[in-house]
Amino acid sequence: MITLSQAATNEIRRLKTKHQQQQARLRLGAKPGGCADLYYTLEFDDAVRASDRVYDTQGITVVVDEASIKYLTNLTLDYSEDLMGGGFRFYNPNAIETCGCGNSFRVKA
User: Fold this and answer.
1) What is the 3-state secondary structure (H, E, C) of 8-35?
2) How far apart are CA 80 and CA 64, in angstroms?
3) What gap in Å lies between CA 31 and CA 52, rounded to an integer?
4) Rounded Cα gap, residues 11 and 6, in angstroms
5) For residue 12, which phi and psi values (nearest 5 degrees)?
6) HSE, side-chain direction, 13 A CA sphere, residue 7
7) Quick one: which of 68, 18, 64, 69 has its CA closest to 45?
8) Would you say 49 and 29 are in contact if contact means Cβ atoms under 8 Å apart?
């Protein structure tokens, strides 16, 4: 399951409207790289593959590819703003280490 905070939900809706992608789904993923082994990906996508996991949370359809689901199960996505600007924050119970940037993580081997 993937959880979105209310702030993340509001920001996703705002971005979908801004980019005129009202029907697009939020695609979350994990790719090799970054300073802690893996990094998060976040994008809008119109397509859903047969192997994707699809979640509906707070009216937002979230899609996770089959390879990423083992890294993102029970992830909570938040959004916050600070003096440096706004950004999505990933709270991942599967991560045993997170880089200072917050976008790169490591899981048990």
Assistant:
1) HHHHHHHHHHHCCCCCCEEEEEEEECCC
2) 22
3) 15
4) 9
5) -65, -45
6) 11
7) 64
8) no
Structure tokens at 8: 């993340």
Place of tokens 């081997």: 109
As a whole number of angstroms, the distance between CA 29 and CA 3 comes to 14
User: 64-109, pLDDT tens digit by residue?
Assistant: 999 999 999 999 999 998 877 889 999 999 999 988 777 789 898 6
Integer distance in angstroms from the first to the last C-alpha of the chain?
Answer: 22
Instruction: Report which of 88, 106, 95 is spatially closest to residue 73, judged by C-alpha positions.
Output: 95
Q: Judging by beta carbons within 10 Å of its beta carbon (0-12, 13-18, 19+), is residue 62 exposed, middle or buried?
A: buried
